[in-house]
Amino acid sequence: MKYDVIVVGAGSSGSVIASRVSEDPNKKVLLLDAGPDYSNIEETPYDLLNSHRNSLRDHDWGFNYEPTRGREVDFPRGRVTGGSSAVNTTIALRGMPEDYDEWSDLGNSEWSWNKVLPSFNRLERDLDFGDEDYHGDAGPITIRRYPAAEMLPQHQAFLESAKQLGYPDCPDANDPDSWGAGPQPMNKLGRLRISCAVGYLSAARIRPNLTIRGDTFARRLVIKGHRCSGVEIENPDGSVEVIEGRLVVVSAGSLMSPPLLMLSGIGPEQQLQSHGIGVVVDEPGIGANLCDHPALSLVCQVKDGAFIDFDSPVIQTILRYTTEGSDKRNDMQIEQFSYAGKQGGPPMFGIAACLEYQYGRGEIRLRSADPHDHPVIDCRFCEDDRDTARLVKGFKDLLAISQTGPLADMIETVIFPDPMRPLDDDGIARLCRKLAGSGFHPCGTVKMGPIDDAMAVVDQYGCSHRVDNLVVADASIMPFVPRANINLTSIMIGEKIGEWIRTGPGRYGL
Fold first, then answer.
1. Among this protein's residues, is 293 annotated catalytic?
2. From the candidates 59, 135, 441, 465, which is the catalytic residue?
3. What is the C-alpha to C-alpha distance for residues 437 and 424, in angstroms, rounded to an integer?
4. What is the pTM for the complete model shown?
């Protein structure tokens, strides 16, 4: 069968695109994912339903990355329909209006704040602030915040300590004008994680024109001339076949979309040739411009371990503010974690400072021409001194919170960093350059922008500049990371491009 639209990757963008495009009953849509597909809640494993903890093993790609030079650690990503939305912490933040206006200023006028806000509103059912004009109340993704009565003692203490230091109360972190400390907006109901598989695909499955195939690995795109005509896939039994489509939408995510394109002959010429891959199009921007949020954590042993419960929600609160001297509003997040370490060990919790506006850039490279080989993920955190300086300030603010009020009263001792280490600016900077880790929000690796930007791979509608009938639509097209966890932004990308394909098919060759 030849499909009208093939969507490769059923994650936070791909699920949405398949759902929106298949609203047109005359379009045959195929949604592919390398991970398993669970067609109903009864079949869905507990690790995907349980939003109190991230799923890190059973539905994970097994990636590693280098956050800073010389060390490699795990980089969890969801391998299942729903993608990382099915395994993540369910933080539902949007970022700052300035982020999207800056995207627009880079030549992507359709992505200004005023033009993305309707899509943010469309995707959400905000149970707390749905009557505000900057929120939605009828979308597929349910969002709520923990009220004070449901907050764990350490989160109540975190908010009170922040208040004592002068940070304002922030009841809605998605209010475009807000800052301060308050509850995290989260896409969960009790334990149930409202992933894109739950919110979007569960309702779309009944459509006869939508086919969902799990356990189907995309090996490469089929490119004839400069036109994409389909996808070469590998079935669970190891057999390989080609599926034809009039339009192919790559939504494999910011870590897997670049390798898929490069394995198809679209990418940096020298890198492709070094792996023996024939070059279809020299695209130096593919795999470059890797953006993320560098973070550094404090780990504390607590005096009374009774409230450290590994079955409790991992996070409930957030502090957002502007670091001293920064011209980027709300460029810092400080987050209290309910627990740290291992069950059975000393009772501990963590607090993280996470830099939200990042100047530094990393890259993704092919490890080999084997489609199953994981890519090289090189983040290069804090190699830009502007990032290091602001993360140092954020970590010092974190230390101040841990030494103030009821949160300080809970702490027996600091486990990390070693209390014997010097924690002046230079000492913290050394920690940042050596040990900063990912906020797990990678994006930017197939950047969108105008065709005269040599590093832009797709235009603002997701269409490839140099290959026909090919769209990329996921976190990889973001010009840079917004000041927020990126799940909602990835869903918003799916909403916008999915609607464009459905309502303006001519732009996409349909």
1. no
2. 441
3. 20
4. 0.98
